[in-house]
Design goal:
- It contains 13 helices and 19 strands.
- The protein has 440 residues and is α/β, with parallel strands linked by helices.
- An eleven-stranded mixed sheet has the order 1-10-4-5-9-6-8-7-11-12-13, with helices on both faces. A four-stranded parallel sheet has the order 14-19-15-18, with helices on both faces. A two-stranded antiparallel sheet has the order 2-3.
- A hairpin with a 6-residue loop joins strand 4 and strand 5.
- Bound molecules: threonylcarbamoyladenylate and magnesium ion.
Amino acid sequence: MDLEPTVKTAVWPVDATKLGKVAVVPHDNDHLGELVIELDSHSVDAQRIQKAADQLRHSDIPVAFPTETVYGLGADATRSEAVKGIYKAKQRPADNPLIVHIASLGQLRRLLQPFHANGNGAAADQIPAIYEPLIRRFWPGPLTIILPTPQDSTLAHEVTADLGTFGARMPRNVLALALIKLSDKPIAAPSANASTKPSPTAAEHVLYDLDGRIETIIDGGPCTVGVESTVVDGLSDPPSILRPGGISLEQLRECPGWERTEVGYKDSSEKGTKPKAPGMKYRHYAPKATVMLFERGQKLDKANEVLRTSSKIGLVRTKGWQVKKHRDSVQITQEDPKAPQSTHEAEMQPGYKGMLAELQNQASNAPQTTYSLSNDGTLIDIQLGPRTSDIARGIFSALRDLDRQDVETILVEGVSDDEEDVAAAVMNRLRKAAEVKIDA
Ligand code: TXA
Ligand code: MG
């Protein structure tokens, strides 16, 4: 294993509103329309994106870029050498397939045609009809769909890990879409963390993990969703969720054909069961510190014992934990969660148009990482707030922050995952982060 730094890593801040002209134009057989990006040659931001796109086309060293979920580590999905660069930089097991990121439905359709087909527009849509309502409502967005890999696929086999299927997703981030469009390649991209670490939700997280191992990190600010995409399999009946993520089970079940969607993943690694999404079986999301996750309603005796006996502790509070300080002791108690109306958040608007509208409102909607750090030398207390979307946005960052401060143990207040939002994804990641350390 070669972990020595080999290249110099640059972090390039890029403002998505300063690329040039970005617009949506109608398209005949495409309800999404077409996203048109015309770079302003005088803009530094545009020059940086162009340079990163050139690297994606020509280099075998992957490029890190923001998406709405987490930062991705991208490479041209059609070139084996480039894709191998991802596995090398991340030290990722080779049997874990990568998601292919596309910027238009036309680009996805081309991937679904056998290599030698001379696509004459009259052919039936290659995208299975079951996915149509999902694409309409959730793309661009945090949803990955599983598709059959065609014969003689142009995708490098390192992308699919020879599974016969591949995952595709259209990210909801103008910088990600611009990179895909400008490179004119499908981009394979896992999360841009070192394998086993929490996923990166800011450019600095990528730098911390991959400094010296990649050349370019496009810094587009913090990710707005904060947990990865939901991976769904609509090729089986009934359809299933292979990995929980930014789109919830409830949201999926509202779509025609998806009413009976099943949960096809397990949160705890039961021995002898083989997860359908290969990535779900690996140690993941784990900081160095021991993570103790307290499920909603679980007794806090153990947490308070740790508080009494450990010398440096991290606390991640969400909906109801209170910290009571007496002279030289600290105690956690559970209060009722905050009223539900404070947790409500409007659903994202569909399509490229919705994405661009959000971009305009970004100043007012900027994600809040609501950290309150109170450090008396032994306790570092992070409050993510009661809203599940804020918890999702801040959770990986919180685990990383605490790790950097060398706490021994991180006590995490879990949330109830029967809620109609990203709570299932948050708890899935936390159970993984916790399960590994407590058993090991
Ligand atoms: O939000 C996301 O999905 C992020 C950003 C960068 O787009 N990407 C991401 O990729 O999380 P990664 O590689 O860390 O996770 C991909 C997940 C893994 O659990 C993998 O096993 C599963 O998707 N997956 C990929 N292709 C698959 C396939 N053909 N069948 C089943 N599962 C697949
Ligand atoms: Mg990952």
